[in-house]
Automatic annotation (TrEMBL):
The keyword Nucleus does not apply. InterPro entries: Peptidase_M1_dom, Peptidase_M4/M1_CTD_sf. It comes from Chryseosolibacter indicus. Residues 1-18 form the signal peptide. SUPFAM superfamilies: Metalloproteases ('zincins'), catalytic domain. It comes from the Bacteria. The keyword Cell division does not apply. Gene3D superfamilies: Neutral Protease Domain 2. This is M1 family metallopeptidase. Keywords: Signal. Residues 360-560 form the Peptidase M1 membrane alanine aminopeptidase domain. CDD domains: M1_APN_like.
């Protein structure tokens, strides 16, 4: 009967606890079940496995850019190496130019509406007669025999005459052409810009040849259709490319120019050689006056530029007679890559002053955080209203007014976009994630290192994207418009705030607040070194960051990457106590304390919204022997009591209203005006994910308490982070000024 009563009492206690405690959401449970099972290709530590493999695609390409009718004609030989353990009966190629063709999925699924008094330009693409897309003229094997092929929107399947076995390679040829898109109408990554004042073009050409899809251990062929947003996933290979253009054009391209003597003047070659030894400032290779002169003459002759690039995943180029060209050498480890810029006169004076400097800064800082930049060049090309990246070359906005003046905001935007796009050489051009499926792995990770570069090299500029304070406005927004970071690109609504800014902010907080710079930097560098020139997936990043730091971050990945939860910690209540110092302490047998309450018998309830009523007194009693169990040693009860005399004891209750578990950062302001910052790891929420109470013992009297005073956790409502509540207005104003 006694045992039955005990069981009933236990059940009642458990029932009461269940009624009081909030619903458990498993925020600290491990991610294993959500991540792919480790195997011999990708290990549980996040590193490539002992049997990791990846395919290789080598290209020999010849293209001609026709400046009279704005077309590209090309032919390519692709040599595809099957390093997989699988037998392949067909190959998949990407036809990204088809994204604008009449029968493409993008055109048929894009939504739109009619607005009164809308600009006529909004209908320009719909009424245009422009014919976009690849014209595939032929697909042939190495002997010249036609190969069967099937085009499905932006993908083309080439059927092989016999299966390609593991360890084998196959070569085949593709001939094609397409009309170059006017970017001012269609807004694409690749295309042309026309300058009516002098009748010339700037061509920024990418996705200009049929490119191999990735085939990997993770999902086989990555042949998800290109719908315009999810970018590109490509295998590494070696490129030999010949580009024929008007004789007075200057070309910027992926790789190393092989025939400068055929395409450059003697003066240009001398300046180019000088630039290779100039580490302190850029050398102007083609001057503005030289470019302006060519704008007027417009040669009808042709020249062919040849470029080679090894171990790259793509190739792009820019061409124009309008280009000014400068270059500067950069010391990176034992290499001296060239930082170079190409820009029409419309980019000056800003581009001559800032572009190559920004390229240099990017290579140096990114190399510090990841791996030494391995390629021979890094190029920034000026193009209107764009930021887009390819191996060794990128296209960037930032155009002054016609009189050459520009605002500080334009300069900041231009520097930011150059750092970002040059930084893409590392993510995803070298650490080669799947952009089509997981945007944050390149855009978000890259935006984070971009911020690190900006803060180090441009400290006088106010950078916001990637800082916790910069993401608050988005995090306070409509949850119906939010998607977790682990969402495919095409389904994301707020693309920039989420895949760029939120991911960058997550990593910034991870470095500055959760892990600390030393642990984070070592783990982040380990990830870069493990996956340089390979194809990492999210699990490889998550696992490597934990493996190299000994920090359990599953709670962090779950909250920031798998949910739309936000940080909203509220300072619910603060109770101030002092140990009763009179001699009338109650005897042990008469003291009755309520479970979970620090105050003992004799205390009175108070309104806990400020410190004006003074501290609540409480008593301690000598420890009952039963608390020691089998231990025979005893603590010094009186000594403990003596140490607590005149101490200020604060019982603080904080709730998690936003759902995102984060570290708790408390700033204590003392009566003498001094401050103390106390950081508590996020694991404080592991038992109760929605509300925690903790006792702090302080020597000095506290006048003010603030949670997250420097906005380190991106708390969306800092007005409820201050105690006493009566001080919130003045303290909140002070906080806003500081941040």
């Amino acid at each position: 009967m006694r045992r039955l009563i005990l069981i009933v009492l236990v059940l009642l206690v458990n029932f009461a606890w269940a009624q009081e405690s909030p619903k458990w959401q498993g925020k600290f449970e491990q991610l294993e079940q959500a991540l792919p099972t480790p195997n011999e290709y990708r290990t549980g530590s996040g590193s490539p496995g002992p049997k990791y493999w990846q395919q290789q695609a080598d290209y020999v390409i010849s293209v001609e850019l026709n400046d009279d009718n704005q077309t590209i004609n090309g032919t390519e030989t692709i040599t595809y190496h099957n390093n997989s353990p699988d037998v392949l009966k067909y190959l998949w190629l990407q036809l990204d130019q088809n994204v604008l063709s009449d029968d493409n999925t993008l055109k048929s699924t894009s939504t739109s509406a009619v607005k009164d008094s809308a600009a006529a330009k909004t209908f320009a693409a719909q009424v245009s007669d422009f014919k976009a897309g690849f014209n595939i003229k032929a697909v042939k094997d190495a002997s010249g025999k036609g190969l069967p092929f099937t085009i499905n929107n932006t993908m083309m399947r080439v059927d092989l005459p016999q299966p390609l076995k593991s360890g084998e390679k196959v070569s085949f040829n593709v001939d094609w052409s397409f009309n170059i898109v006017d970017r001012s109408i269609y807004g694409q990554r690749s295309g042309l810009e026309f300058f009516p004042e002098d009748g010339n073009y700037v061509y920024t050409i990418a996705q200009f040849f049929p490119r191999m899809c990735v085939y990997d251990d993770y999902q086989g062929w990555q042949n998800k259709q290109f719908l315009g947003r999810g970018e590109f996933t490509l295998p590494f290979g070696n490129y030999k490319v010949r580009i024929t253009v008007p004789a007075d054009h200057i070309i910027a391209a992926t790789g190393v120019l092989q025939n400068p003597q055929d395409v450059l003047t003697k003066a240009e070659i001398e300046r180019f050689e000088k630039a290779k030894k100039s580490f302190d400032k850029p050398v102007i290779i083609v001057t503005q006056s030289e470019a302006t002169a060519k704008e007027k003459t417009k040669s009808k002759q042709k020249k062919t530029w040849e470029y080679h690039a090894d171990n790259v995943r793509d190739f792009a180029f820019a061409s124009s007679r309008k280009f000014i060209w400068d270059a500067q050498a950069v010391r990176i480890g034992n290499k001296t890559p060239l930082a170079m810029s190409y820009y029409p006169k419309e980019g000056n004076p800003l581009w001559e002053q800032e572009s190559t400097k920004a390229v240099k800064n990017t290579l140096e800082v990114y190399s510090k955080f990841t791996i030494d930049y391995p390629y021979p060049v890094a190029i920034s090309v000026h193009a209107a209203s764009i930021g887009m990246e390819y191996p060794m070359i990128c296209f960037n906005f930032g155009r002054p007014k016609k009189d050459g003046t520009y605002t500080p905001q334009l300069k900041q935007g231009m520097i930011g976009v150059i750092v970002h796009e040059v930084g893409h050489n590392f993510f995803p051009m070298i650490i080669n994630n799947d952009e089509r499926q997981t945007t944050w792995m390149d855009e978000g990770v890259n935006s984070f290192v971009q911020l690190m570069t900006e803060l180090e090299r441009y400290p006088d500029i106010d950078w916001s994207r990637g800082k916790p304070s910069g993401i608050v406005q988005y995090m306070k927004g409509d949850k119906n418009l939010m998607r977790p970071l682990m969402t495919n690109s095409e389904q994301v609504i707020q693309f920039g705030p989420e895949q760029y800014a939120k991911a960058a902010t997550a990593l910034y907080i991870l470095r500055e607040t959760v892990m600390g710079p030393q642990l984070f930097d070592a783990a982040f560098k380990e990830y870069a070194q493990r996956w340089a020139f390979k194809h990492p997936k999210p699990a490889d990043f998550f696992r490597t960051m934990e493996d190299a730091s000994a920090v359990d971050l599953d709670w962090f990945w779950k909250g920031w990457f798998y949910t739309t939860d936000v940080t909203d910690q509220t300072l619910e209540q603060v109770k101030w106590f002092k140990l009763r110092n009179d001699k009338s302490k109650p005897e042990s047998k008469n003291v009755k304390t309520k479970k979970g309450d620090l105050a003992a018998q004799g205390t009175t309830d108070k309104k806990y919204d400020n410190f004006s009523n003074g501290p609540e007194e409480f008593s301690l009693i000598e420890t009952d022997p039963q608390f020691y169990g089998e231990f025979r040693s005893r603590v010094d009860d009186k000594g403990i009591m003596a140490k607590l005399e005149n101490k200020n004891i604060y019982e603080v209750t904080i709730s998690n209203k936003g759902g995102l578990v984060m570290p708790v950062i408390i700033e204590w302001t003392y009566k003498d005006g001094t401050k103390e910052l106390e950081k508590i790891p996020a694991e404080i929420w592991r038992i109760n994910e929605q509300k925690v109470t903790k006792v702090f013992v302080k020597d000095k009297e506290v006048t003010n308490i603030m949670v997250d005073p420097n906005l380190e956790t991106a708390d969306v409502n800092i007005e409820d982070n201050i105690f006493p509540k009566v001080q919130r207005d003045s303290k909140f104003d002070e906080f806003k000024k500081k941040n």
